[in-house]
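Q: Here's a chain of 344 amino acids. Please give me its 3D structure as tokens.
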Amino acid sequence: MSVNESAFKKGVIRTLAKQSRATLHSTGLSRLRLTMTACLWAMPALFILGACASTPANDLPASNARLQGTELAKSCEGRDGWSDPAPPARIFGNTYYIGSCGITVLLVTSPQGHVVIDGATEEAVPSILANIRALGFDPKDVKYIVGSHEHVDHMGGFAALKAATGAQLLVSAPARNVVATGRTDPADPQFGTIPDMRPVAVDGILTFAAEPGMIDVGEPTRVMALTPHLTPGHTAGGTSWTWRSCEGPNCATIAYIDSMTGVSRDEYRFTDHPERVAPFRETFARVNKLPCDILITPHPGFSNLFERLSGIEPLVDRDACRRLVHAMRKRLDDRLAKESASTE
């Protein structure tokens, strides 16, 4: 069965999209279409300098980037499959969208080499590689592959991407075993509904800066000027990323915020698993404090990315991360309340 044919996750996507219109209305996110489901063993910190400026090889003016965004939105109209091919588009500065219609994959470029964030599915990898080339870059210049969370729709393409690029693969410690074995964590609330993925060797483990509620693990890993933030909840190894991207003198902090939804198999009850609820609370607090000029999410529809890239909605919104946290916290609280009421 193709990963695009997962009946469970497609049902969850439809349910989340329907419920979110009402839930997010009061938070200013009523137009945010929810189409997603959806240590510490540490390597020495990597300090690899990256450039903030956009890459001269593809320094598109803003008008051309807007055209790319419009073409992306048009191409994916009515399509949100995990592996549905999509054209590439520049987001801002040295950051580009190279994913599918339903799954975000990002390319962050620099003269020292490039970083790919997330890998979608194995079926999507040919179009991801084609998008890198279409933007004028060589996949062999990708030095690092990193990701958001250890599910097949986001990391299922890692093995094929690593083979094609020769890049080093870095993940969080909790995600390591899932990526290396290809098997979903048995403690994952969605275990049994998430297909396995092709295993791939992990080259290094990310380290994270100490924050409230975290063990002090020293300096964070720096991957070509990108900073990882441990944001568990949706999975144990969930990771968000922030970095500065510039267009001439204009710079913005891009926040790639991992999924924060409490999605599970039907019989799973979060009220029976406080050890799964606590990480959500810590993640909400952490994301709420992150710098966030441009919000991007692993499922593009979750942050209305295509509409923003095509100019229908503003690309820059410094309150977007906080509003997203508010909405996800409410969603979790509502689920916990519903579960508790069902036992009374």
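Q: Can you summarize the key feature?
A: The radius of gyration is 19 Å.
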